[in-house]
Amino acid sequence: KSIFCSVSPTVKASCIRMHAIQVDSVQRWMEDLRHMTEVECMCVLQSKPIGVDEDAPGELIVSGTGAVGEHVTRDNLQTLLKRALVVSTELGKMFQRLEKGRWQRVHSTAVRVNCHVRSLIQEYSTARNAPPEMQKYEKSLLEKCMELNIITERCLHTEDEYFLKSMKEAIHEILTDVSDSFSHMIDMALANEIQILIHQIEDSDNVFAISTAISNLLSLTQDGPQLCSIIAKEGAVVALLKICRQDCFSTLYAHALRTVASICCVEEGISQLEKVDGILCLADILTDGACAEATRAEAAAVMAQITSPHHTSTQHLASFLESMQDIVTALINLCESASCGEVFLLASAALANITFFDSMACEILLQLNAVHILLQACRDRQRVDTPYSKDQVVTILANLSVLEQCTADVLEEKGIEHLLVLLNEKPSSSSPSESAACERVQQKAAVTLARLSRDPLVAQTAIQLKAVPRLIELCRSPAERNNSDSVLVACLAALRRLAAECPDSIGPTDHQQLIKPRLVDSFLLCSNMEESFV
């Protein structure tokens, strides 16, 4: 029988309604629980060690520079980064939900943020003694998170549009403060962990311990330029170069230099390198024949990084110019003796960057027979086996071709034939980066050909080798140049240079469309062509 058989219809309906409400509440609680259980438990339980001797609390956590301490440092860093990502994601969701006025979601997200932040702070405080300044941020952040909780909860119990609108602005302001405070706190926590790693590098005489600390730093540099800036500001570059100046740590040179190269993706890293005469240290390593090839390759990688055209600051180049001759000589020698493609790529990338900012480097390279060395390397698949390496080679040739004396070297080494090979460069996979590298190879090969064709002998050689049909094909067929506008412009310029030297080499139709009009008109014509036109 039904349990409601002796109850009035009104009471029965009321009980059914209450039962439905309870079910809905339980379901809602279960949904919220899925998001909040873990962090709530962590807030309470993480500070309660299980099975730890009361006489030695935290002994495993605060180990010094031994293996356990190094693993704890790495784990702390990983935990910090993961937790920071979780909180940042939740804060981003909260901003979006606030804009949409989804108050229930706003409040539930505020609760989760509060739990995650408390859990993070509790966990970090258990592992480390936070610096006083960081403790102030922690206290302020917790207060703001609680304020955010309270104010978002108030918004759940009203439908007053005016009140909600005013609260929306207040919540947005608090949320911005929470985001800023959280970022500052995480930066200070990361800086604290990075300092511990740097102290391990500076104070330890154990090769394994130093290597582990360097590995942890290198891993951190992969998490973006903001973290690289913190690492640089804490003095990592100084500590790593100090390692590279001690013979007893020669086995760590390559590892340390790779980390320096990663840190120098930001201006702060380059500035630190300059302050400790890092360029002189790099020059010493590059010119030391006793150094392992891997070490010299990593030094070349640092050179490539600090001379990258992407950097806005060029103050560090002043000290670089003092060692220009030695550095360029060492790099071209490394290109010649490279045992594999990676070593050649690093050395040639450094040379390519160097040739951009000083013509003296180009003159030195020509004196060192660089054209011969580079073109010989291109014929050796063990050294030049990817479009990325070819990109570096053709960049150097393009910059060398500005100088008149380069022409004789290119002709002697049958360089025009190789430029035509590079004009046919195509990606071997669907990788966007490889396609972009092939475009750069085609563009720079065309630029080099145009510059060298100032010399009538070069122009005639290029025409005899059927350069014109390939350049026309690249202009008229978007697929051949991967729809690249930069390749199109370079090929049009090369065609016009060849036509100026040998007008009869271009057919009437091609001359009418590709040579006679203004460059911009020919460009527009070719860039709007369908592939079926060819």
UniProtKB/TrEMBL annotation:
One Pfam family, please name it: Insc_C
Kindly give the InterPro entries that the UniProt entry links to this protein: ARM-like (IPR011989), ARM-type_fold (IPR016024), Armadillo (IPR000225), Insc_C (IPR045789), INSC_LBD (IPR031938), INSC_LBD_sf (IPR038205), Inscuteable (IPR039921)
Sequence ranges assigned to domain Protein inscuteable homologue LGN-binding in this UniProt record: 21-64
Query: What residues does the Protein inscuteable homologue C-terminal domain cover?
Result: 83-534
Any signal peptide, and if so, which residues? none
* SMART domains registered for this protein in UniProt: ARM
Record's protein name: INSC spindle orientation adaptor protein
Question: In which organism is this protein found?
Answer: Cirrhinus molitorella (mud carp)
Q: What is the lineage of its organism?
A: Eukaryota, Metazoa, Chordata, Craniata, Vertebrata
